[in-house]
Amino acid sequence: MVLTKNARPFAVGAVGLVVGLTLMANLLIGLGGNPVVLMHFGKEYPLDPRVEGFARQEFGDNLVLVPYSGHDGKFFYMQARDPFLLHPDQFATYLDRPGYRAQRLGYPLMASPGNVFGPMGVVVALLTLNVVAYGFGTWASAGLAKAMGASPWWGMAFPLCVGFAFEMLITGSQIWASAFAIAGLWAILSKRLPLGVASLAAAALCRETALLWAFGAAAFLWREGRRRDAAWVAVAPLAVVLAWAGYVYVRLQSPPWAGGDGGLALPLVGFIQAMRGWLATSEPEIWVGPAMLLLVGVIFWQAWKRPSLLSWSAAGWALLVLILGPAVWKRASDFTRIAAILMVAFPISVGVGMANRESERILEEVPA
Question: What's the pLDDT at 1?
Fold first, then answer.
């Protein structure tokens, strides 16, 4: 299949935006048009009357409790109501793990202007932002592909990634974290280091695990002899995350690691424990899980055999997948969200490889 290299990243990004808009529209139609459902206020186990009371005060008759403990959306909603933790007794007090949740500032901060229109304004802002993230992430992926010599249409790996669809469903921050991380690489390859560093820092503020992507990029730059650039790429995002974490601790007196829920484990231990459950229940994850682990192996192989800024950055993120705990590996909807950026990086790397081989073939056909 031949993909034109003449396409503009902006045009590809527009297609990605349409995909995101279509997904969101289908979600809202399926939920009866009530966007509050996507905040996932759940019937807590055990039932926490404080959270339910807070939600009813915010949304009144529009509140629909989902029949489980809820998910990321409700926490990002609480954070967006007070992103700088100026009134922690009004909002942050309802977070299940205040220090851990509050360190993810980026997404709720961008949604916070919705407060001008009240609680429903924040809900609409959170949902709209994830649609915009589809367009921005696709544009950045297309730009990165083009900067590496491939067709920008390989950037469509971003909106077609199933992990981001799951993330949109729970109103999470992974879409923005991945979009900023990819945009950071594009900026670095375009010789706009300050913009790249800022984008990587934004990714880490959306999701602190994006630091692994930045560290992978820094390691590659160091390998290439760009020591000063490598230092900026590694240290600046880390410094931003640590500074915000310090502020969070001062405001909430809660460290990020307090109340851990088994999200991380020793390498492959989580996968092995989850595999036992899949074998016992014949869950579809018995196929999806090993396929994800295979993708991680391919990512590492690409970093070794075909080193590039993208492959080394992806290898950094892939390290996270190896240490996911059994609670995350249990469901494909969880581990595919966390590994979503790898499902974007791999196709782009394939496109770059195909473009390089085509260029080599053309050069061989040129008469000496």
Answer: 44
Whole-number Å distance between alpha carbons of 179 and 205: 12
> Rounded CA gap, 29 and 72, in Å?
21
Instruction: Give dist(CA 291, CA 157) in Å, integer.
Output: 17
Give the separation between CA 31 and CA 286, rounded to whole angstroms: 30
This prediction has a pTM of 0.94
Look up residue 107 and give its two tokens: 């997404």
Q: Which region among 36-45, 188-197, 209-218, 337-346 has the lowest average model confidence (pLDDT)?
A: 36-45
Residue 218 to residue 230: CA distance in whole angstroms: 4
Place of tokens 């190896």: 322
Whole-number Cα distances in Å, 206 to 52, 105, 152, 174, 203: 26, 6, 25, 7, 5
Residue predicted with more confidence, 361 or 321? 321
Q: In terms of residues, how long is the chain? A: 368
- Angle of the 9-30 helix axis to the 119-147 helix axis, nearest 10: 150
Number of C-beta neighbours around residue 331 at 10 A: 16
HSE toward the beta carbon, residue 95, CA cutoff 13 A? 30
Contact 11, 359 (CB under 8 A): no
Cβ count near 271 (within 10 Å): 24
CB burial string 345-367: b at 16+ within 10 A, e below: bbbbbebbbbbeeeeeeeeeeee
Percent of all residues in the chain with a pLDDT value above 70, rounded to a whole number? 92
Residue 61: how many CB atoms within 10 A of its CB? 6
Q: Write out the H or E segment, with its range, that includes residue 292.
A: helix 285-305
Instruction: Please write the tens of the pLDDT for every residue from 311-347.
Output: 999 999 999 999 999 999 999 999 999 999 999 999 9
- Local structure of 342: helix, strand or coil: helix
Cβ atoms 44, 72 nearer than 8 A: no
**What is the C-alpha to C-alpha distance for residues 266 and 316, in angstroms, rounded to an integer?**
16
Q: CA nearest 181: which of 237, 228, 223?
A: 237
